[in-house]
Amino acid sequence: MYDIIIIGAGPAGMTAAIYARRAAKSVLVLEAVNYGGQILNTPDIENYPLEAHISGFDFSTRVYEQAKGLGAEFVFEKAVEIRNAEGCKEVITQKSTYKAKAVILATGSENRKLGLEEEERLVGRGVSYCATCDGNFYRKKTVAVVGGGNTALEDALYMSDLAEKVYLIHRRDSFRGEETNAARLKERENVEILYNAKVTKLIAEKRLKEIEVTDTITGSVRTIELNGLFIAVGRVPENQNFASVIDLDDAGYVLAGEDCHTNCDGIFVAGDNRTKTLRQLVTATADGAMAATEAVKYLNN
Ligand code: NAP
User: Fold this and answer.
1) Is 260 designated active site?
2) Is there a smaller number of Cβ atoms within 10 Å at the N or the C end of the chain?
3) pTM value?
């Protein structure tokens, strides 16, 4: 029986492990793939306090070593279910069942992919899912943003300040995102909006060089030369396995506020998989600290 099981070894989960160990609680971190989570894909983190530049890999490795050094146990198995049992929570993985008095769910969320050939290989080579993280690499270059939600509109605005030319490619003729953002974009001289348009092919050598864009009404196809493609077509939180014990919103995020409490006593949530407005490294680590502190209070009471 552990005091706390943390599901997910991204920045939120590993920070929670650090805080829980410093409060002298026994901690098991369950992780499906690698420690680090989504930040592993970021070649250069420039917006986290202290280090002006650090790769996602180096950042994750240092936090992992810090958590392990404090005595957190890591097991690389995918958690597939949480059960409320007598006096504890059971976390079921594909291989085993683990027990704890409290659980912190830090499973994060994935970027929704376009599902194009080569999309995965080109991440960091012209394809990005985060303008705030990678936009600076495209100063005075040509980029495209895909999507019609607030993230895509804000990414296009952000990139129009940096890049020479920004294409915004949306599959419909009206935006899902706020009109004020759309109106501001329409005033930008270096932004060209392509409505009813879908990216249907990525053309690359080592890096992305061109995209093929298909008009969804006429079927006509054009090719656009560019340096970067920012895909902002929503996110997919990884919570569905736990929906039987905690409440999710319509988009699948765990309903929770800044205190990281879920509707279920003894289950806390930290990071990108909870309802929040800013999903960044710094807010994920902040959640980890908060969720662990609340879990420790729960255990001590
Ligand atoms: P979103 O609102 O779900 O929008 C996703 C966009 O991507 C939609 O326009 C959708 O098109 C498009 N899309 C989805 N799948 C696609 C595909 N396979 N190919 C092409 N296009 C595709 O996601 P989001 O923009 O990331 O925003 C998520 C939430 O965070 C929203 O509630 C948003 O308001 C909020 N948010 C708020 C702020 C803010 O308040 N400042 C900033 C960012 C995000 P359709 O419209 O045709 O479905």
Assistant:
1) no
2) C
3) 0.74
